[in-house]
Amino acid sequence: MGKQRQLKIPNLIRKQGVSVSDDCTEIQQRIKTLNEKLCGLQTQLFQIKRNSYKQTILPSKSLAANVVFSRPKNIVLTNSVGVMNRKLELLTVLTGLEVQSYSKNDHCCIVFHMQHDSYNVVKHGLRIEMKSGGNEVTDSSLPVGFNLNEIIDDYDSILKPEYLLSVHKALIAYYDRLQQYESLERLLSINGTLFKALDGSHIEVTFYMHSDDDNLDVKVILILDYRVHDIRPKTYVIKTDLPEEILETLQHHCLLFKKKPLKNAFRLIFMDDGPWQLLNQMGIHKEHTAIRPKRFRPNRNPNNDDTFRPEECSDQGEDEEYVE
């Protein structure tokens, strides 16, 4: 019996071929389906981990229980109101006027904001009644002596912006005149006498000056008159005993009162180097000063009786007869 050569397994498989059964095909299909499900679950797990990392790094801002959600319309409206208030405040600062309250065909309240140097905030107001078709100022908080009627006479309607601005301008001039008067009063101190009307529209200054032209000491009365809107005098009058030529020269120099503040103009004319000098009144009219009586000083010696004064004794007993 002859020897037969044994074939290797790979060669045997290549010669005979491999036949795949139906059971193997179903198993492969199931493996493929399980692989797809596994990929889907892995994707879900990745998303879950990703979201958990987001919450850890950026925690969610939950609204408090008492915070009410504001709609965009309310936010826009609030911003618009805020911008309008800022514009009104700016307009009040620029013009000095503010309409505090207004009711059609009833009344209108105007507030004037003053911005001069003061320790306190100064405001003035007008209440204008508009009933029965007429405009009338029924109440006001204006400073003492302020001449409102002089302004009203120049306008047909007191609700016009021109009238209200005119009142504000007159108030500014009012306080400016008072400040100039107080500055001059501090400058002169005891060397002059000042008088003014309540609103500062009329000022009189009485003082003594020395004239180098005549080498005389003369008394001078300076009278300044202002209109309601003026901060410089409209007219001025000088009353003195100087000759007419010297008086005309002095009046020409007094034109400075129409160009400079009251204190500065007075200093330039009557106090700086010039032909007229303000006199110190400490030594004037000594003869008119009353002699002060000497004060009684009691004797400090306790052994002496200071209560007895012969001049205080009554002489009624000298004329009376003694009656038993």
UniProtKB/TrEMBL annotation:
Biased composition (Acidic residues): 313-324
Domain of life: Eukaryota
Stretch list, region Disordered: 293-324
Name of the protein in question: Centromere protein O
Organism: Pieris brassicae (White butterfly)
